[in-house]
Amino acid sequence: MTGVDKLHARNLTGKGVRVAIVDGGLDYLHPALGAGFGPGYRVEYGWDFVGDNVKPPNKAQPDNDPFGDCSNHATHTAGILFANDGEGNTGFKGVAPGVTVEHYRVFDCNGMSTGNVVVDAVNKAYERGVDIINLSLGSGSRPFSDDPLSTLVSRINREGKTFIVTVSGNSGHAGTFGAAAPEGGGDDLFGVGSVDAAYKYSVYQPATIIVDGAFSKDLSYNPETWTAHRRSEFPARVEVLALSGNSTSDSDGCTGVNNSRLPRDALVLLQRGGCTLKTKMENLARAGVKYTLIYNNVDGPAFDLEVRLDEGLQIEGAASLTKADGEDLLSLLAKGHKVEVEMDSNFTRQPILSSTPNTKTGGKVSTFTTWGPSGEGKLLTSVLAPGGGILSTFPRKNGGFGIQSGSSMAVPYVAGVLALLGEAHPDVPIKQLASVLAMTARPLKFNDGTNRSYEFLSSPWQQGSGLIDASAALAVLNSGVKTSTTRLAFNDTEFGQKTLSLHLRNEIPARITYDISVAQGPGLLALNETTRAPVPFAAAVRAAEAAAEFLATVRPDLQANVTTSLNRLVLDPGQETDIEVTVDTTSLGPLEQRCPLYGGWVHLTSSSGPNDHSLSIPYAGIGCRIKYNEVLDPAFTYLSSATRNDVETARFWNRKLEPIDQGHVFKLHKDRRPFDPANPDKERFSSETLPALQIQLQMDTRGIRAELLPVGGGKPVEIFPPEIGSRVGGWGRVETVHLVWDGRLPNGSFTDSGNYVVRIRTLRLFGDERKEADWRDEVISSKFRLEYEGQLINIDSPDHAGLIEILPCF
């Protein structure tokens, strides 16, 4: 699919290229990852910046050992890059098994870190002179380039000594304008989106059936991938019981489960169907069931069991079986036998890896890939690579191998390809290799998440240059063509440019001739006609298929007029020139209220010698004046009453709080110190309810203001300092904003008791924060009363910034 096999056939493995992975803890003792750490091993150097638990009030415990097996993410991305399990084992091999690896652990076992930690890790890898940094993470919804991580990545890539590959993000469900950090960081970032794997993989773990204490036969089970954010684990030997005596039906588990007859340590057998797997597993969890086997209700392989349970519900071990294996177990139970299974809880036996062709979405753009534009009107995605349904290494205790999806998985694939090209061309900077990899990528057709085929391409706002082609990139590198332009962003109709340039240089001792053409992508009517908010791609956050409303906005006939200054270009040896690309958006004017997004590719085709090749450079623009689109969603922007724990839960699960009623009374305490994220226990988990602002954005913004207004008149007072409301990186629309207030003003004093409302205002995207007119979107909260208890503690001005939690992309 990407030509990597052709580079492997040339015996290219990435040897001589040094890659740093910045991620969670790594199980470097995995045989496929070299079975060791330090000089002489595959992972030659590393550093742990956090330890196992930095969740407050705990502190980071850094050391020089990046080992970790409490999360799958880092071990999975590492395997994609450099695994080599050998022909005597599974034979699994990563993209660049010959690279030298440095690993920097920045996530604890809770998936927590801080922005400073990630920046420190990237800086350390850069200062050590690595060639490539693999950054499979994102720092929340910060869509502007002044985010600290975005700024650092952009600066390093611009310099060119080290090259950083980052994610495009997994917010495709939200539709357009879905950027976060670091992919929202501007022209020098190299963001990678995802395509679904060409094959559907399964990892089966061996198990043994024990009947009446004697060996019966072997079977294999497919462990569940994610339950309550952890990998399933089973006892070494566990008794099997059917949910309904010695029989079962597909309705088992769909209603409340009677737990009076089920020992907590038993393995409950039930059939798939009748309701969702989530419903079955949550009902089992409520009944106290710890382990379950769910067998298929149709013939075929065991199904992938990927379920996230609601907060507070947990099953320690869940797995799927084939219909035949499930019916065998059920038959033994029906005959009165005592049935146990040995599940190999320590995963000492070799897993069974299998694959079948992915006939539905294999090779198509993954629908979770984030759509642009960024907060500054830029393209997010540079290229696509396999990231959906990817088989790779897991920590040994979690089975050794597993499947995950996300742009996180596509990043090490691209880093590996760059390492292969780097071995072939050691004198060419990785930055230039990345440019060539982008220019030789192939734009893919639109994918709605089903098996339906479309004749038009997906927009460059989603796919950038398209799917990488390692073999084509190697051929162009051999041809000696050089360019510093890999994408063109025309921005909006108010602030954008009408003409941009491509720069080409011929560095081989022969003439090159290019034919130049423009391929248009489909237009997108980004905004809903009534709400003026971006139209979501999918009906739910984790839905993989496009909603009918979004499909109606995809318009292959909706295009800007794009022309090039040359139709044919001849470059003699050493010659360089610019090709001007000009856009006219007049045809989009009648639809400006829908903010049409246009894009396509400038194609350069060489047919003048033995190194014939094609280059492709994406262009994209915004066919409206962004500043004239509303930012606030008034339906979900209001004042709530919540504890700090309520707000944390809403943030983590992206849930909505409830608005207060008119006249709500807040009783706040002056006899406590400001909230300290390093010592949160007295605050975070107390029952005290505080004013909590929930702010839902329709568009990205650089600024949020919350002003306290006395009922009956008075001067408005801002309740948060500028570093909160106008934080670096800004605020993205994909995640709901929650801000808690304890009655203190930015100077540390408490406001007076009394009756108030809060006015929430946001800065228009592309607006000028110095102009009041650009803060015209506002929502007024319900009226409430503030009352205080306790005596005032004299304090310095409080620290409102708190922790930045950076979660890996899954």
Automatic annotation (TrEMBL):
The keyword Nucleotidyltransferase does not apply. Residues 541-619 form the C5a peptidase/Subtilisin-like protease SBT2-like Fn3-like domain. GO terms for biological process: proteolysis. The keyword Coiled coil does not apply. The active site is at D23, H73, S408. Residues 14-453 form the Peptidase S8/S53 domain. It holds the Pfam family fn3_5. Keywords: Hydrolase, Protease, Serine protease, Signal. Residues 250-307 form the PA domain. InterPro entries: C5a/SBT2-like_Fn3 (IPR010435), PA_domain (IPR003137), Peptidase_S8/S53_dom (IPR000209), Peptidase_S8/S53_dom_sf (IPR036852), Peptidase_S8/S53_subtilisin (IPR051048), Peptidase_S8_subtilisin-rel (IPR015500), Peptidases_S8_5 (IPR034187). It comes from the Eukaryota. GO terms for cellular component: membrane. GO terms for molecular function: serine-type endopeptidase activity. Belongs to the peptidase S8 family. This is Serine endopeptidase. The lineage of its organism: Eukaryota, Fungi, Dikarya, Ascomycota, Pezizomycotina.
